[in-house]
Write a structure and sequence with these properties.
- The chain folds into two domains: 154 residues, Alpha-Beta Complex (Aspartate Aminotransferase, domain 1), CATH 3.90.1150.10; 239 residues, Aspartate Aminotransferase, domain 2.
- It is built from 14 helices and 14 strands.
- Strand 11 and strand 12 form a beta hairpin.
- The protein is globular and about 60 Å long.
- The site of pyridoxal-5'-phosphate has 13 residues, from helix 5.
Length: 443
C-alpha cells in the first residue's frame, strides 16, 4: 500500500459520512504525529483524547465526553471557547477575506491602536504570528539597537521555541551563567550568547549584568515565571539594573499580557520595560503576536532602513492577519468593561480556595500556587521562588494527580498552569471540586 493510500484509507473511512472514532483517530495520531502529539505535551494513551469542539468553559471529545477546560488555549482563551463576540467578528470578517499579505489592513491597524493605548511601554509595535516569533524579534531588535549579541534569561523561563531562548528551560542549572541547550539541533556556538541567572535573585543578576555589560543586549524575563510570582523588589530591581548598565529590559508578556490586568504585568507590578512581547490573548484565540516598545527601538524594523547597519529585518506571511485581529479587537472590547479583571480574579480565588480545601481534606502535601486568574498545584511545602524550587517538588505525585484529574473530566496538562476564563461558572466550580475530590481519592 502506498503512503498516500494508507492515510487516505483511514480518513475516508472515518471522516466521510461516518461518525469519527476515537481509536481510529488515535491510531492516525500515533502513525502521523511524533509521539501522537502536537508539541511538547503528550498524554499517555489511556488519557489521550481527540477534541471535537469547544464551547464556553468546556471541551467535547469525539466520544462525546465533556471536559471542564483549565488549559484555556494555554491562557489564550480568556473569554472561553467560541465566545459570541469573537465568533461574530470572525464570521463577519470571513466574507471580507482572511488574508491580505503584506498590505496594511483595517483590523490590524485598529488593533495596533488599541494595543499601543493599553501597553505602558508601547509607542510602536510590530505584528508577528506567534509568541515565539515575538520574543525572537524582540531580541533581534534589542541586538540591533545595542549592537551587542548576548542576552540574559532566567533558569526555567520559557520564551517559545526558537534557538536563542531554548536554553536552561526545564533542566536543572547550578553553574550560572552557563547556558544548557534544551534541545538537540541548537548550534553549539549559540550557547555563548546566552547567560543564565536564577529568577528572583537580584544579586546574581547584578553580578552577571555588571560582568557582561559591554556585550549584553538585553535581559528577558517572564514577569511571572511560569507560576512563580516575583518578590516585591525583583522587577523594579531589574529595571534599575538594566538602566544603570545601559542594557535593555524585555518583558515576555505572552502569558501575562491582558491576563494579569488590561495593562498586563506592566500595570500589575508597576514596572515598564523597553520592549515587550505578546501573543495568546491579543489574537482572541487566533494566531497573532506582537512586539511593542519604544519607537527608537521598534523603528529599526522600518523597511526604509534596509541595507543600513541599523535595520532589523522583520517579515512574516501572516503578520497582521485580519481574522485574528478582529477576534483580538472583539476580545479586548470585553476586557475593557468595568470590573472585568476584578470579577475574573475573584472567581479564580474562589476556585483556588475550594481546591486547596479538597487537597487539605485528603491530607495531600500539595499547595495551590498562583494569583490573578491562573495557578498550579504543586507538591511542595512553600511557594516556589525559582526554578530549582520547582524541581525539588514531588513531580511524580503531581503527575499522578494531574492524570487522575484528566480521568475525572478536568482538562489539565501535567506540570502546567491552570487558567480560567470569564465564562467558568458556579456549576463548573462545583463539578470540578467533585472531580478533584475523586481524583485525590484515586491516587
Ligand atoms: C511566556 C511565553 N513566551 C512565549 C511563548 C511562545 O508562544 P507561542 O506558543 O505562541 O509561540 C509562550 C507559550 O506558551 C509563553 O508561555
Amino acid at each position: 500500500m502506498s503512503k498516500t493510500t494508507a492515510t487516505k484509507g483511514l480518513v475516508q473511512q472515518q471522516l466521510v459520512g461516518e461518525p469519527t472514532d476515537h481509536h481510529v483517530l488515535n491510531a492516525l495520531a500515533r502513525r502521523l504525529l511524533p509521539g501522537a502529539s502536537l508539541g511538547a505535551h503528550a498524554l499517555p494513551e489511556a488519557e489521550r483524547f481527540v477534541i471535537r469542539r469547544g464551547k464556553g468553559a468546556r471541551l467535547q471529545d469525539v466520544r462525546e465526553r465533556w471536559y471542564i477546560d483549565f488549559v484555556c488555549g494555554a491562557g489564550a482563551l480568556i473569554l472561553g471557547h467560541a465566545h459570541p463576540v469573537a465568533t461574530a467578528a470572525i464570521k463577519d470578517q470571513l466574507d471580507r477575506g482572511i488574508h491580505y499579505f503584506g498590505t496594511l489592513n483595517e483590523p490590524c491597524l485598529q488593533l495596533a491602536e488599541v494595543l499601543v493605548d493599553a501597553i505602558p511601554c508601547a509607542e510602536q509595535l510590530i505584528f508577528t504570528t506567534t509568541g515565539s516569533e515575538a520574543t525572537f524579534f524582540a531580541l533581534r531588535m534589542a541586538r540591533a539597537f545595542t549592537k551587542r549579541d548576548k542576552i540574559l534569561k532566567f533558569a526555567g523561563a520559557y520564551h517559545g521555541t526558537h534557538d536563542c531562548v531554548s536554553f536552561s528551560v526545564a533542566s536543572a542549572t547550578a553553574d550560572y551563567p552557563l547556558a544548557r541547550a534544551e534541545s538537540a539541533g541548537i548550534p553549539a556556538a549559540l550557547s555563548d550568547s546566552v547567560l543564565i541567572c536564577p529568577y528572583n535573585d537580584l544579586d546574581t543578576a547584578r553580578r552577571i549584568v555588571e560582568t557582561h555589560r559591554h556585550e549584553l543586549a538585553a535581559v528577558i524575563v517572564e514577569p511571572v515565571q511560569r507560576i512563580i510570582f516575583p518578590n516585591e523588589s525583583f522587577l523594579p530591581g531589574l529595571r534599575r539594573l538594566c538602566d544603570d548598565n545601559d542594557v535593555l529590559l524585555v518583558f515576555d508578556e505572552v502569558v501575562t499580557g491582558f491576563r494579569l490586568a488590561y495593562g498586563g504585568a506592566q500595570e500589575y507590578f508597576g514596572v515598564t520595560p523597553d520592549l515587550a512581547s505578546y501573543g495568546k490573548i491579543i489574537g482572541g484565540g487566533g494566531a497573532l503576536g506582537a512586539v511593542a516598545g519604544k519607537a527608537e527601538i521598534i523603528g529599526l524594523a522600518d523597511p526604509a532602513l534596509k541595507g543600513t547597519k541599523d535595520h532589523a529585518f522583520v517579515n512574516g506571511t501572516f503578520h497582521g492577519n485580519p481574522l485574528a485581529s478582529v477576534a483580538g479587537l472583539a476580545t479586548l472590547d470585553e476586557l475593557r468593561k468595568p470590573g472585568f479583571y476584578r470579577k475574573l480574579n475573584a472567581k479564580a480565588d474562589t476556585y483556588r480556595r475550594a481546591f486547596q480545601k479538597v487537597l487539605d481534606r485528603h491530607g495531600l502535601p500539595a499547595r495551590i500556587c498562583g494569583e490573578a486568574s491562573f495557578w498550579q498545584i504543586l507538591f511542595c511545602a512553600d511557594a516556589p521562588r525559582n526554578h530549582a524550587d520547582i524541581l525539588t517538588s514531588d513531580q511524580a505525585r503531581n503527575r499522578a494527580l494531574d492524570l487522575a484529574c484528566l480521568r475525572e473530566g478536568l482538562y489539565v496538562l501535567p506540570h502546567t498552569r491552570r487558567f480560567i476564563s470569564a465564562v467558568h461558572d458556579d456549576a463548573d466550580l462545583e463539578e470540578s471540586v467533585r472531580a478533584l475530590d475523586t481524583a485525590c481519592r484515586n491516587i
